[in-house]
Amino acid sequence: MRARHCLCITVGFGLATIALSGLARAQDPLGTPPPDTDKVAAGPGAPKDALKIEKAPEGLTASVSAGGLDATGNSRMLAFTGAGLFDARSGNNGYGASLIGNYGRSGAPEGGPMVTTTENLQGRLRYDRYLLDDMSVFMLVTGRHDRFTGIAFRLNLDPGVKYLFVNRPKTALWAELGYDFQYDVRTDEGRQVENDAGAVTETLDKTATDHSVRTYLGLRHNFNKEVTFSNGLEYLQSFIDGEKRRFNYDVLLAANVWGGLAFGAGFSARYDNVPLPGKAKLDTSTTMSLVYSYTSVVKE
Question: Hey, is 188 helix, strand or coil?
Fold first, then answer.
């Protein structure tokens, strides 16, 4: 007789707080789709002077999510994931922070060894200064550890400007343009270049830097007050090596369940045209999300 047990609740990175279309957020510290619902939900108002800095709703939003998977029998897997996100708006200043981690082990049928298959941790900080109602300048700081891409630690510094092109009650379209500085500390495994026979032929430097232009395009649409669709595409092109380019894509369909509880289905893709030796160019993930969020927004 085979025994198989599965308990699975997973979360989508950086997408937790957009699960509720009613949440009012100033900005997204992850740089992946900021819903700007604090502005969008208000709808069109009286004509405004284009040079006037508008007073936006103030307050904060926060969310926490956690999940895991346990499978036994012909295939075995044990995985954990957790995330937290915080956003705040005070006057023309926006602040944000996020942290997410994933860890997993898998193995053959009962009796075989279990090996680590997933191990990554990422944190982000973001600051926005709003110059106009639909325009801000920002600084995004990201730190990441990902064992299986060969990255012991990766630091990204991303200053830029964001502009909201479409600002309607149900739809928002925005873009970001800026610069990306990347500093990598590689794992010993990620530094090794092997030939077809598996022999090490070269050892790369322990650290590396890159400079790129960063662009981002995001779209959010509310089908109704309970269901939200959001997606975003990020492109980074290196100044140092024209062959180095990266694409990041995220999409989420979220539905409010009850109060601060929401359910979401998401997909993420990460493409690196020049990965470390022996690493795949494309990583994808499909997630089902259960998130609890809290918001406290003060409106004039």
Answer: helix
Give a yes or no: residue 283 inside a domain. Answer: yes
Cα distances from 95 to residues 3, 35, 85, 128, 287, in angstroms, run 48, 15, 11, 7, 27
For residue 123, is it within any domain?
A: yes
* pLDDT at position 62: 83
Q: Taking the mean position of all CA atoms in its chain, how far away is CA 96? A: 13
Q: Give the chain's domain count.
A: 1
Instruction: Write the Ramachandran bin of 73: left for phi over 0, alpha for psi from -120 to 50, otherwise beta.
Output: left
Side chain identity at 62, as an amino acid letter?
Answer: A
Task: Give the HSE-up count for residue 101: Cα atoms under 13 Å, Cβ half-sphere.
Answer: 5
CATH number at residue 229: 2.40.160.40
Give the pTM.
Answer: 0.73
CA-CA distance, 86 to 63, in Å (whole number)?
A: 7
173 bridge partner residues: 166, 219
* Residues in the chain, pLDDT under 70: 1-57, 110-111, 297-300
Instruction: Give the Å distances, CA to CA, from 227 to 73, 108, 149, 221, 259.
Output: 37, 40, 35, 9, 14
Instruction: Name the residue with tokens 């893709």.
Output: 269
Domain that holds residue 206: 16-298
Domain presence at residue 133? yes
- Structural domain includes residue 81: yes
Rounded Cα distance, 220 and 136, in Å? 18
